From TrEMBL:
Pfam families: CZB. Residues 169-232 form the Chemoreceptor zinc-binding domain. InterPro entries: Chemoreceptor_zinc-bind_dom (IPR025991). The lineage of its organism: Bacteria, Pseudomonadati, Pseudomonadota, Gammaproteobacteria, Enterobacterales. This is Chemoreceptor zinc-binding domain-containing protein. It comes from the Bacteria.
């Protein structure tokens, strides 16, 4: 249950005051909301009446956005590097596979070459075959380890990317709250294909995870999120908007936002479960990032 729902009953009388709407600010975990006056003005006052507190709170939100953006960009670079290492490991594994196949072919030809060999040549042939057997066994082990390593690195990179997407979603949501808090029409784009999560979903996300049920659920939740945003923006732009209706729209947005976060956590679980649990060697565990609510 969101902070808006929890505290709605206690706000009813305050929100109906004429003139300016007084609304407390919350950090749950985000700082929620200060709304426009019922008459459509732009004046914003917190319950304590301390405008300095509002300024401090707004600066905290701005600073948090900068930090989230920096963290997301850094994590995205780490994701790119890990993906590159996974690609290199897969290339090496393919190269080892080619060598093993050549060894199999050479060993087969040596085994079939019997009649024309002298006893001494036959002894050397047997030594070479034994050496090839050892090389084949070791190379197959290397190939297997490279494949598992590449898969584990790639899945960990995917998990990191999902965590970045959650951070980007939090940043997107705070932009919405800050627009309401400041009383300015600076909302993110309403088109679900224009935000960072939407572009990832239709591109790289669909390519890598399109068959996973959690990915489908994420798409459904993301679509509802932008519908909720469109409804909020429409209400915000009304000439005679009311705080009560805006609160209702924010309540819906908060609820759907939690559904998006849950879907991202489920996608993270699916990636780790499919890619690592089945193929990792005994004793090797890959930790997923903790879910955020």
């Amino acid at each position: 249950m969101s902070a808006v729902t929890c505290h709605r009953a206690g706000w009813q009388n305050i929100l109906k005051q004429s003139g300016t709407v007084y609304l407390p600010c919350y950090f749950n975990p985000l700082l929620l909301f200060s709304l426009l006056s019922a008459s459509g003005g732009r004046e914003l006052i917190v319950t304590s009446g301390d405008n300095a507190l509002f300024s401090m709170v707004y600066r905290m939100l701005q600073a948090k956005q900068v930090h989230v953006l920096y963290t997301a960009e850094k994590a995205e670079k780490l994701y790119s590097g890990m993906s590159a290492v996974a690609d290199e490991n897969e290339t090496m594994a393919d190269g080892v596979t080619g060598l093993v196949n050549q060894m199999y072919s050479l060993r087969g030809r040596l085994k079939n070459k019997l009649g024309t060999l002298t006893p001494r040549e036959r002894r050397y042939r047997n030594k070479v075959i034994a050496l090839l057997n050892g090389l084949i066994d070791e190379n197959e082990k290397i190939q297997g380890k490279l494949t598992v390593s590449a898969n584990m690195i790639r899945c960990t990179a995917y998990s990191l990317q999902v965590t970045v997407l959650k951070a980007i979603h939090y940043q997107w949501r705070e932009r919405v709250y800050m627009s309401v808090l400041e009383g300015k029409d600076t909302f993110p784009a309403e088109d679900e294909n224009q935000c960072a999560l939407g572009r990832w979903y239709q591109g790289e996300g669909r390519k890598n995870f399109g068959s996973l049920p959690a990915f489908v659920r994420l798409g459904e939740a993301h679509g509802k999120l932008h519908q909720a945003l469109a409804a909020l923006v429409q209400e915000f732009r009304r000439e005679k908007r009311t705080a009560e209706r805006i609160l209702t729209k924010l309540d819906v947005l908060e609820s759907v936002s939690q559904a998006v976060i849950t879907a991202l956590d489920e996608l993270d679980d699916s990636v780790i479960r499919q890619g690592v649990v089945d193929e990792a060697p005994p004793g090797v565990q890959v930790s997923r990032f903790p879910p955020s609510r």
